[in-house]
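Minimal example, chain plus LXEULUCI.
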Amino acid sequence: MAKGIFITFEGPEGAGKTTVIKEVYNRLQQQGKYSVLTREPGGIRIAEKIRTIILDNDHEEMDGRTEALLYAAARRQHLTEKVVPALEDGAIVLCDRFVDSSLAYQGYARGLGIDEVLSINEFAIDGLMPDHTIYFDISPEAGLARIAASGEREQNRLDNETLQFHKDVAEGYRLVQKMFPKRIQPIDAGGSVEEVTETVWKTVASFIS
Ligand SMILES: Nc1ncnc2c1ncn2[C@@H]1O[C@H](COP(=O)(O)OP(=O)(O)OP(=O)(O)O)[C@@H](O)[C@H]1O
Ligand SMILES: Cc1cn([C@H]2C[C@H](O)[C@@H](COP(=O)(O)O)O2)c(=O)[nH]c1=O
């Protein structure tokens, strides 16, 4: 049985999750808290390989159900190899995206059905849902504008979806929040990096105190 705390970070493209989660992880390290920073899809060798297959711009023919199953497969391996052992060791596990991404992106935006995608993920996660989820609340337009402004990142197959797809992702997340109101805590992600980091830090601190 897990002894640690499993915290996931969710939101649309460019919401600032990766930027802020790194800072939160650094602060936990400075405080001497045993913490693990990881991401989905990825975090371990096999899941990073699956990530490359899913996000490759050249794989435009990928079927929606194949996509959902690949995310679930990467998740299963990541959980068994990294997340569960860390939780059993008492770590605070910070994970950049998890099952709610599948529900919003594949379940709602791809039109596979939130319940259907939850059902294949139930097999993958075998009962392990996050203790807490922080949702970075920002419009898809603002998130995509941040990515465009930075010019640092190569656009992947999901980034390159239509604006309507990203609006559907946001609507999907809204429905997922209604399904899990106690677990998912929205924060305003529209401020500066410093402002959002402070909000997230305070929220994480409230989970671990
Ligand atoms: N609060 C912020 N204000 C302005 N720019 C930001 C803010 N947070 C992050 N950025 C910038 O926006 C871009 C996207 O940020 P980041 O990669 O952290 O987002 P993300 O939520 O992880 O996105 P994705 O899920 O698409 O990978 C980066 O260039 C980052 O420097
Ligand atoms: C876990 C997960 C992710 N996605 C999408 C969301 C993003 O477009 C990419 C991951 O890229 P990031 O830069 O690391 O955020 O994958 C998804 O559609 N379904 C999922 O389950």
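The chain is about 55% helix and 15% strand. The radius of gyration is 16 Å.
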